[in-house]
Amino acid sequence: MITQPTPSAPPPPPSAPHVAGPHLPRLLTAVGQHDERAMTLASHRRTYPVPEMARRQPIESFIAAVERSGLRGRGGAGFPTGRKLRSVSEGQSRPVVVVNGSEGEPASGKDVLLLTRAPHLVIDGALLAAAAVGAKEVMICIERDKQAAIRSINGAIGERIGAREVMIPVRVRVIPPRYVAGEESALVHFINGGEARPTLTPPRPYQKGVDGRPTLIDNVETLCHLAQVLRWGPAWFRGQGTDDEPGTMLLTISGCLKRRGVCEVPIGMSMRTIVQAAEPTHEIGALLVGGFYGTWISADDMGWISMDNVSLRPIGSGLGCGAVIASPRSVCGLIETARVVTWLAGETAGQCGPCVHGLAALARGMTDLATTRAPAEIVTQLQRWAGQIEGRGACSFPDGAVRLVRSALRVFAADIAHHVHHGPCAAAVNRSMLKIPATVPDREKVWR
Amino acid sequence: MIALTQSLALWYFTRGSGALSLVLLTVAFALGTPTLLSWGSERFPRLVIQLLHRNLSLLVVVFLFLHVASTVVDGFAPIGWLDAIVPFGSGYRPVWLGFGAVAVDLLLAVIVTSLLRVRIGYQRWRWVHMLTYAMWPIALVHGLGTGSDTRAPWMWWVDGLCSLVVLAAVIVRLHERPMISQRARNLALGALFVVPLSVAAWTMVGPMKPGWQKKKPSQGMVGSVVVLSSASPR
Amino acid sequence: MAVSFRLRLDPIACDGRGVCADLLPERIDLDDWGYPIIDPTPMSGVTAQHARRAVAACPVLALKLELVQSSGSIRGSHAGRTSSSHSLR
Fold first, then answer.
1. Which of A70, A111, B73, B183 could cross-link to A246 by cystine, CB 3.0-4.6 Å?
2. Which residues of C, range 28-87, sit inside 8 Å of A by Cβ?
C-alpha cells in the first residue's frame, strides 16, 4: 500500500520565499525547520518511515517505479534517472553507487543543505538506488571545504550502525575543492586513485567507472527525490511539476532579494512568481539562471518563462543546478559576465587546448568589452571563439562558459552598443554584486 | 700488397663509417626535439623535420651495418657478427667494443618501437625512446675507446662538435613542452653536468694518452697486415 | 558496401602541434590557438589512407581512426556527448 505524506507539513524556512500554490515542500520537510542541526535518525523515521515499497514489493520493481515517475537528475543535466538506473543495472559486473555531493557551483547551496541537515534522507536514497541496481557499495563525495556536511553524513552513518540497521558499506570520499572535480569522469578517476580531473569518455561511468564497474553517479537531491518516489509512488511524485519534468526542485536564490536561500518549488513554476515571492530589493535587470555555469535571462522575459528545461532550452538556457541570482538593473551585466568567465577560465582542468586557451580568450574579450572602449568587432570575435570552443573539450565544462557569453551578448546587447560607442558605463566601473571566489593560482591547486 | 690495401681499405672504411654514424646520429638526435618536430612554414609542411629525423635514424642503421660488416670481414681483430649485439664478449677490446654493442641494442629497440608506434601506444613508445639519451654517450665512449683516430685533430673536431650539439639539444629539450617534472629535470641537469665531465676526464687519461691504441688483440690475425701508424708487425 | 572510417581526437592528449592539419586539410582545420577541429564525416579510399598517415604522424598519438558501420552508427560505445548538456556531467 502506498501511504500519503502527512498533510500538515511544516512551513518553509523563514528566509526562503513562501511561494503560493497547492503544493507541500517535500524535501525541505526533511530539513530541520527550527534547528540548524541535522535531523537524527529517530526524527527522520518519524517523518519518513521505512519505505513501504522496500518492504512489500520486489526490488526488481524499483527501477520501473522510478521510470514511471519521470524523475530527472537534479545535478543539471536532467537525464532521466530511471533510464540511468536501468543502464547501470544491465552492466556486466556488480555496480557501485556514487553520490555526487561535490556542488562546485559557488552560487548553489542545496546539496550542502541536504547533506548537512537531512543526511538520513540522502542515505535512504543512496541505499534504495543501490538495491535497485544491485550495488553493494555506496560512496558519498563531498568537497574538502565542506566540513559540516562531512561531519553530518559521517554522524548519520554512525547513527545507523549504532541502531544496528543492516546496510551495505556507505563511505564518504573527500574530494578536492575544484569545480571540475564534480564532473562524473573526474569523480571516477579520483576514486580510482588518480587526480580529480575529467578523463576521456567513452566509456562513461555508467558503463565502466569505479574499479571498471558500472557506476551510478547521481546528484544528492536526485537521490532524495528517489527515496520519496519509492516511499509514496510515481503517481504521487507526478502530482507536481510538469509532464516532461515532474516533481519539485530545490533552488538556491541569491542576489538583490530580501529572502535569499534554498527553497523548493514545483518544476514549471513561473519565474516571475518565484522572484516576486523572494521580494526583490531593487529593480531587477537580469537573472543568472544556473549559477556561474548558467545563462542570463532578461527581466523582461521573466513574465513568460517558466522554470523548466522545456521552456529554457530553446532559448539557450537551462535550469542547471537550480542556482538563480537576481542582478539589479543598476549593475552592469557585462562586467559581471567578465568576472564570472574569468573565474571559470581559472577553474579548467588545464588538459584541453580549446578550453584552456579559449576560456582565457573569452575572459579577456569580455573584460575588454566591459572595461574599455572596445571596437565593435570584439562581439564578432567573441562569437567566433564561442563557436570554436563548443564541444571540443574532453568534458562539457567549456560549453558552460560558451553559453554564458552567448546569453550575455544577447541579453545585454543594448549595453554593448553603449560600451562600444561611449566607453564603459558608470556601473561597470563602480558596482558589482556577484560574490565570486578568488581565482586560485595553478601552483596552489590540489587535484588529489 | 693487395691484401694490405684491401685490409687497410676496410679498416679506413670501418673508422669512416663509425664516425659518419656518430655524425648522423647527432643530427637525428638534435632534430628529435619536440618543437622542431612540429615546426612548419609556408614552404615546408610540418612533416618535413619529422621525416628527416626518421630517415636519418634509419640511415644510421645502414651505416652501422656497414661499420660492423667491414670490421668483421676485415678479420684484423677477432670480432664476429654476434659481438655487434652481444656486448663485452669479443676478443678485441671487449669493454669498449661492448659499449658499441650496447648502443646498437638500444638503437634497435628504439627503431623497432618507433616503427610499431601506433600499435604499442604513446606511453610505452616514449619510455623506450628515452633510451636515446643513454645511447648517444655510450656510442661516443665506444668510439673514443676503440677508435684509432681519437687523437687525430679531425676526430677531435667531429667528437667535439657532435658533443656540443647533443648538449645543446638536451638543454633545449628540458625547457620545451611536453614539460617533464621538476624532479626529472633536476636529475637531467645533474647528469648533464656529470656525464660530459667524466667522459672528458676519462678521455684525457685514457684514449688521449699515447699507447692506448697499442694494446694488441689477444687472438691471432687473419692474413698479414701492416698497420701504418703504430703497431709493431707480428 | 564501402567500409568507412571516422577520425576521433583525444583532446587531453592533443598538444596543438598541428602536424595532422598539414596532412589532412580535407578534414582537419586549426582553431585560433593551433588545435585541430576535426570534421567527423566518414571517409574511405584515398582520404582514409591520408587519414591513416595523419594518425601515424601525430607526435603524441592523439588521433585515432574508428570504423563506421554501414548503417552510420559507430561501432563500440557511444561516441560523444549531447551538445547541450547543462551540467558538468
1. A70
2. 31-35, 37, 76-79, 81, 83-87
